[in-house]
Amino acid sequence: MVKFDNNSSPNRLLDAVKYYIQEDISNYSKQDRFLQFDPKGDMLKIEYYQQLLKAINKNLTKEERKTRTYLKTEIRRLTFRNKPGVGNKLLNNRVSRFISLWLLARQNGYSALNTHVKQFQKTVSLDQSLLKLGKQLQQMGFTQSIDHQLRKMMDLGIEKFHVKYTDLRHPDTEYVLHFAKDPGSNIYHFQHFEAAALPSWKQGRSAPAVYTQFDNRTEQQITATEAGNLVHGKAIAVHADKDTWLIIDRTNPHFPFQYVTFNLEEALKKLPLPPMNKVENDNLINALKTGGTKEISFTINESSVMLKLQASPLANTVYLFDKNNQLTDPARITRQGPTVTETVLQHQVSTHKEYTPRLSKV
To answer: In which band, very low, low, confident or very high, does the pLDDT at 356 lie, cut at 50, 70 and 90?
Structure first.
């Protein structure tokens, strides 16, 4: 059996084929799409291979002559796939290609080279998938690397898989990230993720976690932090409309979310907030809009007291909580005090009882 060895001698043709594969896969990956059958892509590849045969046809090494056979066979295969007429069926179908190679005693050489190219294509596809998924997960707030788990699962070649994700910043929330392979390729994409509030020790860890699904392909992109706050009973602001907020509402099992109108700035004006500069004020608003709580120093009975602010769109107000998580009456606060601290507390545990489907547009 003839074995292909790319290290035995230089192979300009194979280098050119690999370069094209890298660029082609990189382009598809950036566009977040893969076509199992791409007529335009096939025509461009045929043209490229034909130009290679014309440009590199002198002083060929043994391996380059093998690659010329591979390119000619690929041109016939792609031509047959895109123009399956009677003539093409007779001249370029799989049986005809095999007979031609067999008569030329080159079938083993073609098979070995074809296997080599496909393996290279798979490696590039997985590398590009890992790079793309890593960037996408970072943008969504999943900042802890899961590259090792992703590569292990992708190397198996399975169509779909999931990875459980935990974050030191959200220890009371569990995430499950779902991935799938594009049909007819080795390119993987991110499908959706699920989040669940872990039961507290008071509730008993044996209590089942209830997951909510978030689809990243919707207009409203939910981050890991926002999802964690939502499943813990908090509300987040919809980015497209500053007065529209989102909460989890499981009364409708087919759509576990509810949109609520709430003007945060107006609600804050009703509170005896201490003086703040623009940066402090923006930090406060941003923290509350992502479902977090902001800790501020207030003056009560001439003493400095740290209170947490949390937006409550359903009650059309902003609640104040003390260190014991008890509500504090704003009337007790003296309207003077130091500025906002930079501590943002992102979680307040609560529980839910049903699994729900993906999020859709407003």
So the answer is: very low
What is the SS3 assignment for 161? strand
DSSP string, 109-130: HHHHHHHHHHHHHHHHHHHHHH
pLDDT digits (tens, 9 = 90+) for 16-61: 999 999 998 888 877 665 556 678 888 999 999 999 999 999 999 9
Strand 333-334 vs strand 236-237: parallel, antiparallel, or unpaired?
A: unpaired
**Averaged pLDDT of the chain:** 81
Provide the sign of the torsion angle of the four alpha carbons 21, 27, 28, 32, taken in this order: positive
Structure tokens that stand for 195 in this block: 């989040």
CA angle, 356 then 243 then 249, to 5°: 20
With 0.85 as the threshold, say if the pTM is over it: no
The stretches of the chain forming alpha helices (DSSP H) are 12-30, 39-55, 62-82, 86-92, 94-103, 107-139, 147-155, 224-231, 264-269, 278-289
pLDDT of 288 > 80? The answer is yes
Cβ atoms within 10 Å, residue 265: 10
Q: Which two tokens stand for residue 350?
A: 């609560």
Reading the block at residue 96, the tokens are 């005809």
Long-range contacts of 194-200 (CB under 8 A, 24+ apart): 195/224, 195/227, 195/228, 195/230, 195/231, 196/231, 197/172, 197/173, 197/228, 197/231, 197/232, 197/233, 197/349, 197/350, 197/351, 197/352, 198/172, 198/173, 198/174, 199/351, 200/172, 200/349
Confidence at 119, pLDDT banded by 50, 70, 90:
very high
Distance CA 362, CA 238 (A): 9
Distance of alpha carbon 176 from alpha carbon 198, whole angstroms: 13
